[in-house]
Amino acid sequence: MANTSTKKAGNTNIVMTLLKGRTLLILAVLIIFFSIATPNFFTINTGLTVAKHVALYGIMGIGMTYVIITGGIDLSVGSVAGLAGMIAGGLINQGLTLKMFGVTVYFGVPWVMLIGALTGVLIGLLNGIIITRFNVAPFITTLGTMNIARGLANLRSGGATFSNITGNEALGNTGFDALGKSILGIPAGVIILVLIALVAAFILKYTAFGWHILAIGGNTKAAKLSGIKVNKDVTLVYMFSGFCSAIVGMISAAQLVASHPATGEGWEMNAISAAVLGGTSMAGGVGTVGGTIIGAFIIGVINDGMTMCGVSEFWQKVIKGIVVIAAVIVDQFQRNLQAKMALQARNESK
Fold first, then answer.
1. Is 91 part of any domain?
2. What is the reported pLDDT for 23?
3. Given a cut of 80, is residue 22 above it in pLDDT?
4. Domain that includes residue 154, residue range
5. What is the C-alpha separation between 241 and 270, in angstroms, rounded?
């Protein structure tokens, strides 16, 4: 009996180890598969293309990770990206017209980026206030702000595109397109992703705020009783998510050298997928920035790999949906297995 129990425990530990390392395992399998399926996949040019996309998914996914850890969801991220891109593109091409003074003000790129980022932060603030002060479910709240942001993006230009957003030297607003270029061969978006990831990971692991949002996701009532200012922290989390989305919108606009109001449609799915594939639990209380980055790589490899293999966009959506559902099922299985192992450990200690 003892040998049987020991064998079962060993098998359980092996399964748990595989579950914990599943993200890296999946990524490795995908890279090998697409390298075999299409000869041009495992090349430097393809790698740089994937990296550019991963940067967008990763930055947005980091903000989503914070939100999901608190037990929430943010469906507005794609629309916020589109709105921030339109705000930035409009400021560069058209400036800000002050009708009462009869003048048009053009801002330098740092100010354009700041205004674009603040746009995302304000949408996040709105989400946080509605969720915490009016007790509206995050799904409903962000579904509403998703449509608000998308509508504002279209209203900004009447549904038209701001093209050639390179600025004018005479107006002192050139350089925005640098966000879409490379520095020493590394895409600027990847550098921004690394910087945001390092800061976000440090906050989550080593600061009181990070511990608080993990506690909120684990047990909101207990967090309140322990003195954590739940409403304030949750609002800050949604503001951070809005900030990340706005940064993504501006990077995307810079890469295309154009702003389109439809930018970001469906990107909330990529952000959620990156977080969930990276081990962030939809039940809240569990998640890491590093895991989300790996999840973003998986989404990037799947998207670009399937495109290079000639898989239609419609089938890509079906496959990504299946991947997300599978990830949630595996996460639930892991949680149940961990609970079972903890119970067995307590019984053996008695």
1. yes
2. 81
3. no
4. 54-337
5. 14
Q: Are 300 and 254 in contact (CB under 8 A)?
A: no
Q: State the residue for tokens 């390298």.
A: 35
Q: Flag whether 233 is in a domain.
A: yes
CB 76 within 8 A of CB 127: yes
Q: How far is residue 83's CA from residue 335's CA, in Å, rounded to a whole number?
A: 38
Residue 131 resides in a domain? yes
Residues near 9 by Cβ (< 8 Å), separated by ≥ 6?
344
Which residue stretches of the chain are H helix? 2-20, 22-37, 44-69, 77-93, 109-133, 138-157, 188-206, 208-218, 220-225, 230-256, 267-277, 289-308, 313-349
Strand partners, 96: 105
With tokens 């990077």, the residue in question is 251
Rounded to two decimals, the pTM is 0.92
Cβ 316 vs Cβ 269: under 8 Å: no
Q: Which two tokens stand for residue 115?
A: 């205004």
Q: At what angle do helices 230-256 and 77-93 cross, to 10 degrees?
A: 50
In a domain, 42, yes or no: no
In contact, 314 and 320? CB cutoff 8 Å: no
Of 239, 264, 237, which is closest to residue 87 (Cα–Cα)? 264
φ and ψ of 259, to 5 deg: -115, 130
CA pair distance 210, 100, nearest whole angstrom = 46
Q: What gap in Å lies between CA 35 and CA 306, rounded to an integer?
A: 11
Pairwise CA distance, residues 204 & 210, whole Å: 4
Number of domains composing the chain: 1
Both tokens of 142, joined, read 């962000």
Tokens at 339, concatenated: 């609970």
d(CA 247, CA 81): 7
The pLDDT of residue 321: 86
Query: With bands split at pLDDT 50, 70 and 90, how would you rate the model's confidence at 230?
Result: very high
Name the nearest CA neighbour of 109 among 20, 205, 208, 181: 181
Tell me the sheet residues that pair with 259: 162
- Residue 154 contacts by C-beta under 8 Å, 6 or more apart in sequence? 261
Tokens read off for 217:
């996701």
How far is the C-alpha of 299 from the C-alpha of 262, rounded, in Å? 21
